[in-house]
Amino acid sequence: MKQLKLMIILVTCLPLFLVYVQPSEVKGFTSQVIQHGATGNDVIELQARLQYLGFYNGNIDGVFGWGTYWALRNFQYEFGLDIDGLAGEETKAKLTKASNYDKNYVIEQIEKGKDFTHYGGVDKNKQTEPSKNNKKPNNQNNTSANENNNNNSANQDQNKNTDSTTNEKDMEPTAVNVPQGFSQNDITLMANAVHGEARGEPYEGQVAVAAVILNRVESPTFPNTVSGVIFEPRAFTAVSDGQIWLTPNDSARRAVLDAINGWDPTGEAIYYFNPNTATSSWIWSRPQIKQIGKHIFCM
Amino acid sequence: MFRWLLIGLLSISVVGVSVWGYQEHQEKNAILIQAENDYQRSFHDLTYYIDLLHDKIGSTLAMNSKEQISPQLAEIWRITSLAHNDVGQLPLTLIPFNKTEEFLSEMGDFSYRVAIRDLEKSPLTDEELQSFESLYKMSSQIESELRKVQNLVLNDNLRWMDVQLALINNDDQADNTIIDGFKTVEKTVEGYSEGKLNASLMGTSSKKDGFQMLGDKKVTEEQAEKKFRDLMDLDKDTEVSITKTGDGANIPTYSFSFSKEDLSGYGDISQNGGYPITIMLNREVKDAEISLHEGMNKAKKYLTNFPFDDLALIESNQYDNVGVYHFVPSQDDVWIYPDAIQVKVALDNGSILGFVGKDYYENHKERKIPSDIISVEDAKSKVNPKLKIEDQHMAIIENDLGEEVITHVFLGTLNNDTYKIFINAINEREERVEKLKQAETKY
Q1: Hey, what CATH topology would domain A184-298 get?
Q2: Pairing mode, if any, of strands B311-319 and B276-282?
Q3: Which residues form the Sporulation protein YpeB PepSY1 and PepSY2 domain (chain B) (predicted)?
Q4: What is the pLDDT of residues A90-107, one digit of tens each?
Q5: Beta bridge partners of B420
Q6: Cα dihedral across residues B270, B275, B278, B282: positive or negative
Q7: pTM of the prediction?
Q8: What is the largest CA-CA distance in chain B?
Q9: Residue A86 to residue B293, Cβ atoms within 8 A
């Protein structure tokens, strides 16, 4: 009889136990550790949750930039975690527990391309465009965060509901990483030039042409801007004959990014020419470095 | 009747064609003139700036008060950069016009260097005054030669488009006054190159003796190829093509490349010591399966194949489905920024797509870390108090003059922007303030 009672207690407790365990499990996030520079869905959720708690005031754009980094570190400090700026398992668990993430709302705003915020305890309708009317979180926000902590399980249920109704729509980040000192337009312009000059070349030959453009920007004998170098009269045949305005392919873009990030297969060359078509005798007199694909690169 | 009709039709069409041809001709001329005007503007701007530059340098030489010299040099610096821009717009790329550009850039470097210096503490040395005087002479020569060319251009109505055409046709015979004029400018300046700034003043001497750590021991082509195959994990069947660098290279390398159906690769192996300088792999990268963080661990693991000491991650960025990581060595917790290493990782399966060790091999050596450095608190007091400092470390960086200095680095925020501030740990100077980039919104 006693055993049966025990069993009953156990059986009735088990679901409770399960319910208790579930909140600490990471629900929305994937199991990946998120670090500075990352992009994607996890970053959107991270930013939204940090904003919910009032740590993050920037745009929820899906790019883990410096703003997100400091917000995360402050969160880790306030919640007594290791301050490493990485969203690991423990950090994500704490974050999930403390905040509410309205995925549908965030997806909807991103899809509509609206400016929006995701502060906890503020009416959602006030948090979408026009952004000037957005209420910044005030002290009231902290209390609401605490409340959240208290009736956590209720929130969690609600969370689960929203999660299950979402049919795993993919969110695209609304921003992109760009290397320091370059804009997307610079990259596009360079990709245009590289495509026009070297679209038949192997990949390293394309990186090489992009590297030459950058070496020229650095060089004292050439203009100091990307556009200055590219549009320098007679510097690039693709500019003179209009081939620069062809739409660049993906490979040209990647080559440009590689070159900006430090890849230079040319060994700091500032000139290159095609030995089959070059007419100027002057170019042959330059000290040559090496040949990549059809181009000879020289100083 | 029929004949008259035919004649009428023919004459109408003749008139029509000539009207059309005339219009085309007009349009072509308009565009030619437009291009010509651009060249003319650049050229006349250039001569004007050189005039101005000459006057400014002269008056600076006559100045004594430090309060005046600094802004004057800043002004010179600004004008050199404007003149430099104009040179770049002239169709002179393939005729040797380097000397004039070099003069401009040397003048710019010199004026900048002195203008940002506290002349109260370290006034102009005799050497610097000499350099300055020789630059002054160079400027006067260039000025007078350019004026001659300008005079010819204006008097004889010379057109830059003709220069352009002469250059395109590579017509050496053509008696082209402008080209000749510029060649004279070039010759004159060349005569002065002896009086150039000496290397130690230019702060480029450290670059010259780079790549010391590669050693003198040459490796054979076969050894280098084996290294390349190991690094790329290539089987015996894959064909690898090899080229050697020519005499223009500042570091002799063997360059390898291969191409398979879905994968191609490229690598530079130094002839001295056989170190990999650049590695690149290119393939279609599928959707990201692993995180940027996991990619970093792969990159770190990859770098254990190299003889690098402690490495610190200074930047990681995800571009679509690839992660790019910038590492610097850390010596006694001082980050050595000039010795940067880059690794690129595909985030679909975590394979390495690229590696750059050029900066490391060029600059790396055991640094002396001085003991008489100022404390973090002292350095912090030099930072703009409006900044909220979030993080801090020590680093060796190359300052604006190209010298390596030891600094306290502070990462701080002001409003929504993050800044990196480098405070010299010896003389407390604010060496550099960088605003760190934010993600850019997609258009």
Answers
A1: Arc Repressor Mutant, subunit A (1.10.10)
A2: unpaired
A3: 180-370
A4: 888 888 888 888 888 888
A5: B411, B434
A6: positive
A7: 0.72
A8: 110
A9: yes
